[in-house]
Amino acid sequence: MQIDGRNYLLAIDTDISDETDAKHSSLSLDKVIDVMEKSNASTKIIILDACRDNPWERAWSRAASIRGLASVYAPKGTIIGFATSPGELASDGKGRNGTYTEALLQHIDEPDLTIETMFKRVRNTVAAETRGKQTSWEHTSLSGNFFFNISLGKIIKSYPEIAIADELFVVDETKPSHKIIKGLKSHNWYTQNAVLSQLTAASVKKMTDSNLFVLGRNIYQAACGGSNSARIFVLSFMDETSGYPDEKRKALLDGMLFEIFFDPKAKLRSKIKSNLFNELFDLQKYASLKESFEFIAEALIASDGEFYALPGRDHELAVTVGTTKVKDAYRVDAIYVDGINVFRAEDEEWTVGGEEQKVYGRKSAADLKEQLSQELVVPMRSLKLTYTPASAVKGELQVPFGYTVRKP
Question: Where exactly are the structural domains of the chain?
Answer without folding.
Answer: 2-140, 154-302, 317-404
